[in-house]
Specification:
- It catalyses: (R)-carnitine + hexadecanoyl-CoA = O-hexadecanoyl-(R)-carnitine + CoA.
- The protein has 24 helices and 20 strands.
- With about 775 residues, the chain is an alpha+beta fold.
- The protein is globular, with a radius of gyration of 29 Å.
- A hairpin with an 8-residue loop joins strand 15 and strand 16.
Amino acid sequence: MAEAHQAVAFQFTITPEGIDLRLSYQALSQIYLSGLRSWKKRISRMRNRVIKGVYPASPSSWLFVVIAILATMYMRSDPSMGLIAKIQEHLPKIGRMSYVLVFSTLLWLSLILTLRFCLKLLLSYHRWMFEQHGHISTTTKVWVTLVRLLSGRKPLLYSYQTSLPCLPVPPIKDTLERYLESVRPLLSGPGFQRMTVLAAQFENSLGNRLQRYLKLKALWATNYVSDWWEEYIYLRGRGPIMVNSNYYGMDFLYVTPTPIQAARAGNTITALLLYRRKVNSEQLTPSRVPGTVIPLCAAQCERMFNTTRTPGEETDVLQHWQDSEFVTVYHRGRYFRLWVYKAGRLLSPREIEYQIQRILDDPSPPGPGEDRLGALTAGDRVPWCAVRKQYFSSGVNKRSLDCIERAAFFVTLDDEEQGMMGEDPVGNLDRYAKSLLHGKCYDRWFDKSFSVVVYKNGKNGLNAEHSWADAPTVAHLWEFTLATDAFQLGYTEDGHCKGEVERSLPPPQRLTWDIPVEQVSISLSVAQALADDVDCHVFPFRDFGKGRIKKLKISPDAFIQLALQLAYYRDRKTFCLTYEASMTRLFREGRTETVRSCSNEGCAFVKAVESGEHCRRLFRLAAEKHQNLYRLAMTGSGIDRHLFCLYVVSKYLGVESPFLTEVLSEPWRLSTSQTPVQQLELFDMKNHPDFISLGGGFGPVADDGYGVSYIIVGEDMINYHVSCKHSFSETDSHRFGAQISRALLDLLSVLTPAKTENSQAQDKKQQ
């Protein structure tokens, strides 16, 4: 009970001689230092609000304006053109200098609004994205110069938010035309004719009415898609979020920085908290479109930490707390609260390792039902909501649940060893993926914004809840964590964290429960059936990578997507509706848009390959088409988010649309996503080539389909994560992975000219 005594700053007893007051100076000191940290954070937030509020100007520019006005007036000139005199008429007599300061401030604010409006106009220009590489127009060159001038001062994380344009509502006619073009290769002649008629009827009747309501929302809301997307796609789902929604990220492929579990946990937790400090202080550099000065929306970073998803009967709710000084740790069925700050000071990595080791060494058994409590977050949402209301709304259960939900994040100390190791490295990678995707179904807290998993052999990974942010935001966090762990914090020669340990640290606090075992068992059975059905395959493709593809003057993403089309056609003997996630973070509060990768041009190319025709020209056409579709999606001219919002409006109005109902019920049998590498500067691939990220993956979207995630690593490798379901006999993740590898090699052979006899002879001479 040492920590309980330290929490009491003073005690008093009443005696016959009077009141005996005893002060705990150690506790008072800790209270003072903790309060000091809190006030520093408040002051920092106030400072950042001022800096963001005047961006793209700076607070010091106000002084420049005042001096300029005074200098002009000293020259016997009136720069206000009579406005200072007007101010004098309407304000009490407070001295001429005060009137000058009022006018200067108003002029300064007007200049800020003008600069911000100009930057917003500049960031609304997207024609640069459609220009060919190496053929930049004069207009774009001038535009780049102006953007650099207006955003030259070092911005904070959220500085660009008010300057980002709003997501535009595309014309309904254009969206319907693009939709019909996207389904043409998937439908028979009569089927396509029927959809054409449905689309025309929708446009001429209900469509324009729904479009007017949507435009009205776009004028009022910051983003006409994001709030509905978060609520109806994520939070209103009543099925399990494990596998169906959550996704995972992996550790380095070849390297484990230390084999000591507690040490790896210490550095990982420290790196995550250092990232949180950067987010809170807004010192994190704003993300940009790779290779450009164009900023991306950073709104998703706001709920990264101290956030949890709580279940409801009809819809879940995301809860976010301003700060948290502890994390929750799960180990062998027990839950612990681990304080990571002491007296306002972040514990050193060595101190966190020391505390983690205390948890690992704790011999106490879990309470009845405690070990499988996390299964409630893995099962259906409505039963979890009912159990939460009945058993977790008061008493010891509420206090312990609050510790989990208010924690900065969740940590699992897993008893298993994972990674590409042993006599079966391929099978072990697959088991590693399944472990991160669902674990044992009860040893993760799937409602937390993200849960970190540290394995017995020092390998780590994370599982992220999807509603609050998309994969690139979490990938940015995870890149920073891995790089900080390996290259900045580092380890001692014997594999422990660096730093000193204050031995007086109170031990981690064990959480206590009174758990309804029967309800937990029901959720676990649902989750276990889902987990057992998932088939995962992870493999690195090493034959070639981005470097070889770019030499052929082809977009790597277009190359990979066309290989996926070829692989799927070979696997299932047909084409399917294909989902590729694209970002819309060029706009304020933007999230994602769908690129419908299965195009007429792509299908024509695949058929030509299979029939043995000369198809290099068809490949170029298909790649250019894919790139154009991707650009349209990024610039707000996609198909699916617009149709989704029209559907939501129709539901609010209580009207039915056969066209929208059919469109939104179409299954995505091939769902794909690229995990971008965003912080290359953190990884020294030249001196440390083994520190290669495996990326991450997700479960299949359709029961009879595939989920494919890929990450382009360096110049010579592409890592793939393939998932499907055992319950559908016609899909197999290993078979599809082999088809992907074969398709990549076949595409390269299509684009690589056959060598002549002379060139082959020259190669032999060189050898």
